[in-house]
Specification:
Oligomer: heterodimer
Strand content of chain B: 15-25%
Helix content of chain B: 25-40%
Largest interface: A-B, 29 and 36 residues
CATH superfamily of the largest domain in chain B: Glutaredoxin
Low-confidence stretches of chain B: 1-33
CATH topology of the largest domain in chain B: Glutaredoxin
Largest sheet of chain B: 5 strands, mixed
Structural class of chain A: alpha+beta
Strand order of the largest sheet of chain A: 1-2-3-9-6
Radius of gyration of chain A: 34 Å
CATH class of the largest domain in chain B: Alpha Beta
Strand order of the largest sheet of chain B: 5-4-3-7-8
Number of domains of chain B: 2
Number of helices of chain A: 16
Structural class of chain B: alpha/beta
Chain lengths: ~700, ~210
């Protein structure tokens, strides 16, 4: 072998150096004066179809820092532009909780020492090549006092494996960073305090925690002044952070999203935990246009309630009464109208007060809560059945008092009208829940006086048509003339009442067991027999009358006994939902979301008619079922038939106070979409297609922060 | 017991309210915060320019005034001066009769701090044509306007009320290549004011380096 000339060695050396430099350029590490950045993977190899974690990791020179997704008052978030092999899909950047970086009067959010930009990477189901190269061009700003924009090209080559991929030496660090990622905190609410201040109510989950410190990092610019002090205090519903509003003034924001970092005092020292917060606004401060608009809406809503199926029969009675009364004096009619209105308002007031009192004592309940009690449902079933029997003419009340003078008859009419009002409200509740859920949910987050105002406006709306008819005789001309048709009509109305009763018994069967059902049916039988006996005894001799009264009392006693003995329906877990739906749980949702699957959650209750109708016509149909299967949509059912604080909180997080509610989480991540309360098959199919499209779009556009 | 709890929490509330007021006073010298807010009268100021001349905001009543916070060493400022973007905007403003005041709030010894002569030299070198460069060494005007970044721009209309505050455009990066197709918020605000229309985007996110107070 001839000796090579030194010049030739030099040339070879230069070539090698150039090659090495070239390799470094396309390598996984970029070193600048201020950072050492590296593209790393948790798994040592890529397995087809698998989602694995990669990260752009920065070692930052002491004194310098890089930025969070919201950099604060100045600065810029890093950006990654991926160049991936075909079929690979990069998810959104998962940002570890940032640090506060105060700078004179300014505040920045970012990372000192070390920064991780975590990205879930999904491999396609088939990979032909033996190795794949994940390439990225990244830009980032690194600042001390002065700022330097930097950039780098990264390439990470990984082998492809058919087996479970081995972990790299980074795996432990990945797990640690993931552990520190913000967790979802449900139940946070935003309430504007005044023109300058926002109140971020952190919710009951943090109530029991000894918080030493808390800081809220807003996701976006302008809503919160980054540098202003944040005052932590404790409120009724948990800790409260007061935030100074940022430059974007004007209408208060309708939601606030960001990351909350709390420092907790633990026996072995303070511990910081990060939560991601999505706080909907609880509504504007009481007073002003917000209140006026809410009252008007409630009034209109109450008016519409007159047409709901549960209210209609009761109010038809009212109509009949009015037709009958139009023969009587104007005074009697007016009195009746006012008494009816008073009955409606008092009943609404009583329910609202009970609801507020229970909530104040910490119960997680919402509107329609009455129907979550099996005893209430049973009593209502009996009541509607008794009313049905009355309409059918099986029994009657009051005839014996006829002829005792006009004055008393008027009073009796007024009393009757009052209780008709109460009755209308009581049977209206199952309809108000789905119909007014959003409005009432909003009202319940307001101060008590405000909420009561909204409830009363709702009641006034319900009573309004009847009140107007009673007060203005000219309006009554539209009513048909009284006649024999009224008796037939009354008998016809018995059937909606029986139907309501039958439906309530079915609801009860969902809440209770077979014994509860037996009690309910025994009660119905007792009721029918007792009312018939009582009526029959009325026309008989005094001794028989007394016997009839005694039987009536005995029957009432028996019914009360049955109510008390009613098995408590809170069977753990409840009945498994029928069909393809799985029972909702927060853990199951988190699991499905982590897997990137689209999820449809159906918030429902057996006593909610709208929910049942929606399920029949829109959710349980064959076409929708097929669409869900092809789109890989997971279908969860959150059953609120019985009380469930976890579901109540989730409803409240979306500013609802009752069912139905439908949430559709898109594929691959992102905010859920709230579907309308009244569903059609076409609407559901369109939205499902949208959720699939979100996934398809994700697959073609590489994720970018 | 119940009473005691309520009593304590009320006291805690009052104490914390006091503490917050104290913090507010401490952080905002001059307590009454004449904050720069769009739609409100722009805070009055007076400042000395690179040639020793004093400028008061009130001097320019009836004319549109543009305030530009700047720091010639900041990469985001260099992006807009290097591409000629800022100079072009200054010419547009002058053509529309507006007064352009560049403000340097860098403290002595910090990045971007310059003497009057250096400031004029920078304008000559870069072909910049501001009406004046105001040297705000103690940061008083910057704090008054809560200027956060360089660049950070404010437009004040002829009646003296603040019509625009925020970034120069909607491309928050230091890369000149990103400027293509950007919406220049200041140019748009000037054009809208000239046409007698309300400014369609009166507040945007300012971006850039922090002001070196």
């Amino acid at each position: 072998m001839p000796k090579a000339a030194p010049a030739r060695w030099l040339a070879v050396l230069l070539l090698l150096l150039t090659l090495a430099a070239g390799a470094a350029q396309a390598g996984a590490v970029v070193e600048t004066e201020h950072v050492r950045a590296e593209l790393i993977s948790e798994a040592a190899a890529v397995r087809p179809g698998q989602t694995f974690w990669v990260a752009l990791r920065f070692d930052i020179r002491p004194g310098w820092h890089t930025y969070w997704k919201n950099p604060g008052d100045s600065g810029e978030a890093p950006r990654i532009r991926w160049r991936l092999p075909e079929g690979f899909r990069a998810g959104e950047v998962h940002w570890p909780p940032p640090q506060r970086l105060p700078l004179g009067p300014l505040m920045n959010f970012g990372y000192a020492g070390e920064a991780w930009l975590l990205v879930p990477m999904t491999a396609p189901g088939r990979i032909e090549a033996g190795t794949v190269e994940l390439a990225a061009a990244a830009t980032w700003l690194v600042c001390k006092e002065e700022c330097i924009p930097e950039q780098g090209e990264f390439a990470l080559t990984l082998p492809v494996t058919a087996d479970e991929a081995a972990a790299t030496s980074w795996a432990e660090a990945f797990a640690e960073v993931r552990r520190r990622l913000p967790q979802t905190l449900d139940g946070a609410m935003l309430a504007p305090l005044d023109a300058d201040t926002l109140r971020l109510e952190l919710g009951p989950a943090l109530r029991q925690v000894a918080l030493r410190e808390a800081w809220f990092f807003p996701d976006a610019y302008g809503l919160v002044e980054h540098a202003a002090p944040q005052l932590l205090s404790s409120g009724e519903g948990g800790p409260v952070l007061q935030l100074r509003r940022g430059e974007l003034r004007g209408a208060p924001p309708d939601r606030l999203t960001g990351v909350l970092v709390v420092t907790e005092d633990l026996p072995d020292g303070p511990m910081a935990t990060a939560f991601s917060i999505d706080a909907p606004a609880a509504g504007p401060a009481a007073g002003g246009i917000g209140l006026a608009a809410a009252l008007l809406l409630a009034l209109a809503g109450g008016f519409l309630l007159n047409l709901m199926p549960c209210v209609f029969p009761v109010l038809s009675l009212k109509a009949l009464h009015l037709v009958e009364q139009s023969r009587a004096g104007t005074r009697a009619v007016r009195l009746g109208g006012l008494a009816f209105t008073a009955g409606v308002l008092l009943a609404f007031l009583a329910i609202a007060l009970a609801l507020l009192a229970l909530r104040a004592s910490g119960e997680a309940i919402g509107w329609g809560f009455q129907l979550q009690s099996p005893a209430f449902v049973l009593a209502l079933a009996w009541l509607t059945f008794a009313l049905g029997l009355w309409l059918s003419g099986v029994w009657s009340f009051g005839e014996g008092l006829m002829g005792l003078g006009q004055g008393l008859a008027e009073q009796r009419g007024a009393l009757g009208a009052f209780f008709t009002g109460v009755l209308a409200v009581v049977v209206a509740t199952p309809c108000t829940a789905p119909f007014m859920g959003a409005a009432l949910g909003y009202a319940l987050t307001q101060p008590a006086a405000y909420a009561l105002g909204v409830f009363l406006a709702l009641g006034l709306g319900l009573a309004l048509p009847w009140l107007l008819l009673a007060l203005f005789p000219t309006l009554r001309r539209v009513l048909p003339r009284p006649g024999a048709w009224m008796e037939r009509f009354k008998q016809l109305l018995a059937f909606p009442m029986y139907a309501t009763s039958a439906w309530l018994v079915w609801v009860l069967s969902q809440q209770s067991d077979a014994r509860g059902l037996a009690y309910a049916l025994a009660g119905l039988l007792t009721l029918a027999l007792a009312l018939w006996l009582w009526q029959a005894s009325r026309a008989a001799a005094p001794a028989w009358r007394r016997l009839g009264g005694a039987i009536g009392l005995a029957a009432l006693g028996l019914l009360a006994g049955l109510l008390l003995a009613l098995p408590d329906g809170r069977v753990a877990g409840g009945a498994p939902p029928a069909g393809p739906a799985e029972a909702y749980s927060a853990a199951r949702l988190a699991e499905l979301r982590a897997a990137g699957r689209p999820v449809l959650i159906n918030f429902t209750a057996a006593w909610c008619i709208t929910c049942q109708v929606n399920e029949r016509v829109a959710l349980s149909t064959q076409r929708v079922g097929e669409a869900m299967r092809t789109a890989g949509v997971a279908y969860l059912k959150a059953d609120w038939t019985r009380r469930d604080p976890a579901i109540t909180r989730l409803l409240e997080a979306h500013r609802r106070s009752g069912v139905p509610m439908y949430l559709l989480y898109p594929a691959g991540g992102g905010e859920p979409e709230l579907l309308p309360s009244v569903l059609t098959e076409d609407l559901v199919l369109a939205r499902l297609a949208g959720a699939v499209a979100a996934r398809a779009a994700d697959a073609t556009v590489p994720g970018q922060p | 017991m119940q009473n005691r709890v309520i009593h304590l929490s009320r006291r805690a509330l009052m104490l914390s309210a006091l503490a917050m007021m104290g913090a507010g006073l401490y952080l905002q010298p001059g307590a009454a915060r004449a904050q720069a807010q769009v739609g409100q009268p722009a805070p009055a100021f007076s400042g000395v320019d690179s040639r020793g001349k004093t400028h008061r905001l009130g001097d320019y009543r009836g004319r549109i005034v543009v305030l530009e916070w700047t720091n010639h060493d900041c990469p985001y400022v260099r992006k807009h001066y290097g591409s000629g973007n800022m100079q072009q905007l200054q010419r547009q403003a002058a053509a529309e009769g507006a007064v352009w005041l560049s403000v340097i709030s860098s403290a002595p010894g910090k990045q971007g701090h310059v003497t009057g002569r250096q400031a004029d030299e920078l304008s000559r070198e870069r072909g910049a044509t501001p009406h004046a460069v105001i040297l705000d060494e103690n940061g008083a005007i910057g704090r008054l306007y809560q200027a956060k970044t360089t660049p950070h721009l404010y437009v004040i209309d002829g009646r003296g009320s603040l019509a625009y505050m925020g970034g120069i455009d909607d491309r928050p990066s230091a890369d000149p290549a990103d400027s293509a197709g950007a919406r220049n918020h200041v140019a748009a605000a000037l054009a809208e004011l000239k046409a007698g229309k309300p400014v369609s985007q009166p507040m945007t996110r300012p971006y850039g380096c922090s002001v070196k107070y």
